[in-house]
């Protein structure tokens, strides 16, 4: 799987390259600025891009803007955005097109190699990987709203993991319940959120989107 | 000869200008003065709310024209002291009330009114003198030339000369020449005097300037104090937080180094602790950064930073932003933290379930209003934290206004003069 990596701090870039290579990713390019990233995304057409929000030359949200532009040109281009902080505002912008293949994680998550690589793979496969911090912000904010109040504590827990982009298998493992129990919870959640039940993979993205849109 | 000619021309020009201006002074100022008084009186009836802003605008235009002429004709500069006047406060009734209040609060409004009164009296008299001294001598000359015959039976008083014969007619002519010479000599200074008189009323008083200096001194002290205590807080947070955790991490790593072969299980546990420590240090640093200069503010500017702020609130909110650029970083930062504090206050005290934030910039003024549908009753200076916001904005010459009748709704308005780039 070919990766384009954009990160301006040498140490972190180097570390990410090593880590990704150790997990059998092919680094198509490791760049350190916005213009380089834009060029790499357009020319190399990677399977997934791992992008820092803040990049030179402007050191503002150059990376994020690059990712959004690239996704307009190539809808569904998987992008995993890394940031020193996570903001709902940015999460909403990333998810806005509803195409999936989006990740938005705190840089700290890189510490846990397995989780991080899992997130990259999920995003590359068209899923989502939202940082637990974004999700908990969303859930705490919605706690006073309908229909969040209608969810049981257990369902909220499932919702939280699902919104992060975990599969039912992963959720079942983490919560130490059977997969069938998780499936029951998720269908309850979809019902309470008024999301049409279908076999569409993006239903989980829709669940997160439904929250973001309500904000 | 040449100088006499140019002198006469200057005098004539001044006289002509004074002639035109005297009508403006009498008619314009008198009408505006009466209408303004009427309009202020009618505020109680509500009608004044509609007329006052329009009328004030006319008065200011009138005064501005005089300022322009003063600079052009007599090289007298009269400063324009009006507070920035919002043209697009809001539509409808509340906008009118707000505008009228702003006008009534501006000392320049009252100064203008005093000036109108002075302009239609003393100012007018000066102008009349200015041109009459040039026109009146003509009558003396005409009398001497033969018009005196009309008054042979009944003396005609030309100034203090009773004209009824050629001799007295010549005397009148002589007086006329003297007056003319006086007029030629005096018309320019008289016109100048008129503008000096206008300046004495229209320009901000020394007292006001002194007040402003006092206020600047005060806000500077506050700014220095705030900056110093902020630095102390950051130092303390770093010292007690991230720094301590990193030290602990280093110690853990040292122990791990020693343990790794002897007791791998224990070493593993300590590694996990070290990792947790590093994560906590990061979280603390992140919070600290957010407190100094919020990331979204740095990356996107005030508009999106306020939007991001509103997203984190437990209350449904609507944010509208109209900014054509970014303000300077210190202004942005002050505005952001002020909004942040107002929002925190609202969530804590207002008991509102909806709030609206409006951020826009027009005519060199950044305006932010936060409105909620809560219970109201908020006031500046009751230990409500609003005083702190006021001080924070004061450093940038900004102002805070709170309208919060009991029962709500509360509207907090902040204004900071600044340019966007």
Characteristics:
heterodimer; A: 215 residues; alpha/beta; six-stranded parallel sheet; 10 helices; 53% helix; 13% strand; B: 421 residues; alpha+beta; five-stranded mixed sheet; two-stranded antiparallel ribbon; 11 helices; 7 strands; 69% helix; elongated; histidine kinase (chain B); two-component regulatory system (chain B); kinase (chain B); HATPase_C_sf (chain B); EC 2.7.13.3 (chain B)
Describe this structure in words.
The complex is a heterodimer of chains A (about 220) and B (about 425). Chain A is built from ten helices and six strands, in the order E-H-E-H-E-H-E-H-E-H-E-H-H-H-H-H. In chain A, helix 5 links the parallel strand 5 (about 100-105) and strand 6. The N and C termini of chain A lie far apart (about 35 Å). In chain A, helix 6 runs antiparallel to helix 7 (about 155-165) and helix 7 (about 155-165) packs across helix 9. By secondary structure, chain A is an alpha/beta fold. Chain B is of the alpha+beta class and about 425 residues long. Chain B is about 70% helix and about 10% strand. Chain B contains eleven helices and seven strands. Chain B has helices spanning about 1-40, 45-75, 90-105, 105-145, 165-200, 205-260, 265-290, 295-300, 300-310, 330-350, 385-395, and strands at about 155-160, 160-165, 315-320, 355-360, 365-370, 400-405, 410-415. In chain B, strand 6 and strand 7 (about 410-415) form a beta hairpin. In chain B, helix 1 (about 1-40) crosses helix 5 (about 165-200) and helix 6 packs antiparallel against helix 7. Chain B is elongated, with a radius of gyration of 35 Å. The relative contact order of chain B is 0.07. The mean pLDDT of chain B is about 85. Chains A and B meet through helix 4 and helix 6 of A and helix 7, helix 8 and helix 9 of B.
Would you tell me the overall average pLDDT of chain A?
84
Query: Would you tell me the structural class of the helices and strands of chain B?
Result: alpha+beta
Which two protein chains have the largest interface (Cβ within 8 Å of the partner's Cβ), and how many residues from each? A-B, 19 and 21 residues
**What separation lies between the terminal Cα atoms of chain B?**
58 Å
Low-confidence stretches of chain A: none
Distance between the amino and carboxyl termini of chain A? 36 Å
Main sheet overview of chain A? 6 strands, parallel
Task: Find the count of extended strands of chain B (DSSP E, 2+ residues).
Answer: 7
**Average pLDDT level of chain B:** 85
As a percent range, the share of helical residues of chain B equals: 55-70%
How much of the sequence lies in strands of chain A comes to 5-15%
Dominant shape of chain A:
globular
What is the H/E order of chain B?
HHHHEEHHHHHEHEEHEE
Order of helices and strands of chain A: EHEHEHEHEHEHHHHH
Strand arrangement, major sheet of chain A: 2-1-3-4-5-6
Overall shape of chain B: it is elongated
Number of helical stretches of at least 4 residues of chain A: 10
Range of strand content of chain B: 5-15%
- By secondary-structure content and strand pairing, the structural class of chain A works out as alpha/beta
């Amino acid at each position: 799987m070919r990766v384009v990596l954009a990160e301006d701090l040498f140490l972190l870039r180097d570390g990410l390259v090593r880590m990704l290579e150790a997990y059998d990713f092919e680094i198509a390019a490791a760049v350190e600025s916005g213009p380089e990233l834009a060029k790499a995304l357009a020319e190399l057409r990677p399977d997934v891009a791992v992008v820092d929000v803040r990049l030179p030359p402007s050191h503002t949200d150059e990376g994020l803007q690059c990712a959004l532009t690239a996704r307009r040109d190539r809808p569904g281009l998987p992008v995993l955005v890394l940031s020193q902080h996570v903001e709902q505002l940015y999460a909403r912008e990333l998810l806005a097109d509803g195409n999936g293949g989006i990740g938005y994680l705190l840089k700290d998550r890189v510490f846990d190699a397995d989780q991080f690589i899992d997130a990259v793979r999920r995003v590359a496969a068209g899923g989502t990987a939202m940082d637990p911090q974004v999700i908990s912000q969303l859930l705490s904010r919605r706690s006073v709203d309908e229909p969040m109040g209608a969810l049981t504590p257990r369902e909220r827990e499932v919702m939280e993991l699902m919104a992060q982009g975990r599969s039912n298998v992963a959720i079942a493992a983490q919560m130490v319940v059977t997969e069938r129990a998780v499936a029951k919870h998720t269908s309850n959640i979809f019902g309470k959120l008024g999301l049409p039940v279908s076999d569409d993979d993006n239903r989980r993205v829709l669940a997160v989107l439904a929250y973001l849109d309500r904000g | 000869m040449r100088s006499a000619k140019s002198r006469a021309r200057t005098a004539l020009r001044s006289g002509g200008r004074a002639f035109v201006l005297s009508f403006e002074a009498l008619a314009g100022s008198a009408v505006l003065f009466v209408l303004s008084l009427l309009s202020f009186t009618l505020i109680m009836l509500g009608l004044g709310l509609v007329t006052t802003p329009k009328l004030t605008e006319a008065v200011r235009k009138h005064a501005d024209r005089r300022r322009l002429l003063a600079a052009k004709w007599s090289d007298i500069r009269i400063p324009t002291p009006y507070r920035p006047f919002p043209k697009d406060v809001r539509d409808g009734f509340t906008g009118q009330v707000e505008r009228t209040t702003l006008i009534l609060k501006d000392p320049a409004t009252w100064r203008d009114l005093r000036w109108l009164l002075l302009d239609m009296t003393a100012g007018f008299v000066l102008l009349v003198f200015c041109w009459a001294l040039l026109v009146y001598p003509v009558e003396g000359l005409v009398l001497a030339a033969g018009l005196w015959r009309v008054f042979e039976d009944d003396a005609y008083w030309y100034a203090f000369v009773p004209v009824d014969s050629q001799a007295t007619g010549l005397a009148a002519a002589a007086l006329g020449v003297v007056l003319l010479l006086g007029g030629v000599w005096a018309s320019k200074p008289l016109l100048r005097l008129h503008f000096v008189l206008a300046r004495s009323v229209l320009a901000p008083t020394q007292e006001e300037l002194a007040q402003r200096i006092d206020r600047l001194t005060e806000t500077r002290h506050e700014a220095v104090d705030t900056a110093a205590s902020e630095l102390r807080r950051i130092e303390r947070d770093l010292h007690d937080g991230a720094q301590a955790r990193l030290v602990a991490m280093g110690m853990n790593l040292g122990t791990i180094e020693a343990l790794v072969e002897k007791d791998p299980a224990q070493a593993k546990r300590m590694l996990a602790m070290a990792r947790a420590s590093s994560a906590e240090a990061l979280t603390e640093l992140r919070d600290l950064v957010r407190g100094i200069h919020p990331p979204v503010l740095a990356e996107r500017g005030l508009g999106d930073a306020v939007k991001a702020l509103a997203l984190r609130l437990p209350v449904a909110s609507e944010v509208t932003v109209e900014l054509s650029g970014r303000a300077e970083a210190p202004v942005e930062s002050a505005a952001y933290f002020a909004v942040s504090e107002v929002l925190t206050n609202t969530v804590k005290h207002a008991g509102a379930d909806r709030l609206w934030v409006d951020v826009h910039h027009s005519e060199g003024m950044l305006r932010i209003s936060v409105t909620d549908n809560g219970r109201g009753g908020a006031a500046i200076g009751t230990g409500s934290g609003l005083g702190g916001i006021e001080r924070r904005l004061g450093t940038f010459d900004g102002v805070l206004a709170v309208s919060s009748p009991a029962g709500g709704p509360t509207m907090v308005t902040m204004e900071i003069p600044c340019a966007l780039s």
